[in-house]
Design brief:
There is one protein chain. By secondary structure, the protein is mainly α. The chain has one domain. Strand 1 and strand 2 form a beta hairpin.
């Protein structure tokens, strides 16, 4: 019985150790998290790699995180479609495609998510932007 405080501390330490790293996001509101990742879209260094040593693949952290946030990130991503930076536009489009697959939003759109042609290439930015804006025209009423 006298070891229970130590056991409790050990349990808490294990839980904290298993927590997902936050990529340096200061805890706060969802809006601040969205703003943080939106600001990181043009940052070419804010990328991780995965895969084996012979076939490394980029993990576009900001775009992936915004995609995971889903529906709440979409209005901010739509605003970024006007960026003059082709790299940022490519990632905004990719994040928008991912975010449009949010289960809550799919229920509201009848499973209509943003379908893009080739993604993660600047060569298709204009066509993908056109598709994104068409999708937005159909569903912007779902965003108060």
């Amino acid at each position: 019985m006298r070891y229970w405080p130590l056991s409790l501390l050990l349990f808490i330490a294990i839980l904290v150790g298993c927590a997902r790293p936050s990529d340096d996001v200061t805890p706060g509101t969802e809006a601040r998290t969205i703003d943080y990742y939106i600001s990181k879209l043009p940052d070419r260094q804010f990328v991780k790699t995965y895969g084996d040593g012979e076939n490394p693949k980029p993990w576009y952290t900001a775009a992936e995180e915004l995609g995971q946030i889903g529906k709440p990130a979409i209005p901010a991503l739509i605003e970024r479609l006007e960026t003059p930076d082709p790299y940022e536009l490519k990632l905004a489009l990719y994040a928008l495609m991912l975010a449009s697959q949010d289960p809550e939003l799919l229920a509201e759109t009848g499973d209509n998510y943003l379908e893009l042609g080739s993604v993660l290439t600047e060569d298709t930015n204009e066509e993908n932007k056109r598709r994104a804006l068409e999708w937005w025209d159909l569903y912007q009423h779902l965003f108060p």
